[in-house]
Write a structure and sequence with these properties.
220 residues, mainly alpha, 2 domains, 80% helix
Length: 220
């Protein structure tokens, strides 16, 4: 009778261990599948949208990958699950290269737009390169804001920033030629001329300096 009880106890333990093992494997399969499905789903997101939401995508990816890898602990015969995780990771890394490249473009464009708005003020909408919003009544304030902003930030601008500044400045000058014919006062025109005299050497000196720094960094 005693031996029977021991046998039944061992059998129950074996069944319990088997059930536990099966449960772990089922959970692992679920977590690995969830990881793979996530990577498949984000690959269908439009590239620019993915770039804008990249931090959240990366965070969710890391969480799901960790869950999948941790779920294999204690699972026997996990070779196929490991291969699935590895294959999913490879697909993600290939996708990541594309999105990060797009994100760099988006970040650069956002930085450019931010600088333009800082230089030109609230009137600039990011679309009108003809500067039709600049008129005889506000052109002086636009020049003042432009030159003051450049002077304030001149030490932090890169060579690319200075090239963008020149592009915006020339567009503003082109608009001034039109505004002069639309009633720009002599007083405002005189003040703008003074700002232009102030800007020219500031641009030349700092653009050369930024280029020199860029060349030095390239040599290192």
């Amino acid at each position: 009778m005693k031996n029977l009880k021991i046998t039944l106890g061992l059998f129950a333990l074996a069944v319990s261990l088997t059930a536990c093992t099966d449960e772990k494997k089922l959970q692992a399969e679920k977590d690995v599948a969830q990881y793979a499905n996530y990577v498949d789903s984000i690959s269908n997101i439009e590239m620019q949208k993915a770039a804008n939401e990249w931090d959240a995508i990366q965070k969710d990816y890391e969480r799901l990958k960790m869950n999948a890898e941790n779920s294999l602990t204690g699972v026997e015969d996990d070779k196929s699950l490991k291969e699935s995780i590895d294959n999913t990771s490879v697909r993600y890394e290939e996708y990541k290269v594309k999105v990060v490249t797009e994100k760099e473009k988006v970040d650069a464009e956002n930085a450019k737009m931010s600088m333009r708005k800082t230089l030109l003020g609230d009137g600039y909408n990011g679309q009108d390169m003809n500067f039709d919003w600049v008129n005889k009544d506000n052109i002086l304030s636009v020049y003042e804001n432009f030159v003051t902003t450049v002077e304030k930030n001149k030490d932090s601008y890169s060579r690319e920033d200075w090239d963008e500044i020149k592009l915006m400045y020339e567009a503003l000058d082109t608009r001034k030629n039109t505004v002069e014919k639309e009633g720009l006062t002599s007083e405002d025109n005189r003040k703008i001329a003074g700002l232009k005299i102030k800007f020219a050497p500031m641009y030349t000196v700092n653009r050369i300096g930024a280029k020199s720094e860029e060349n030095e960094e390239a040599k290192q």
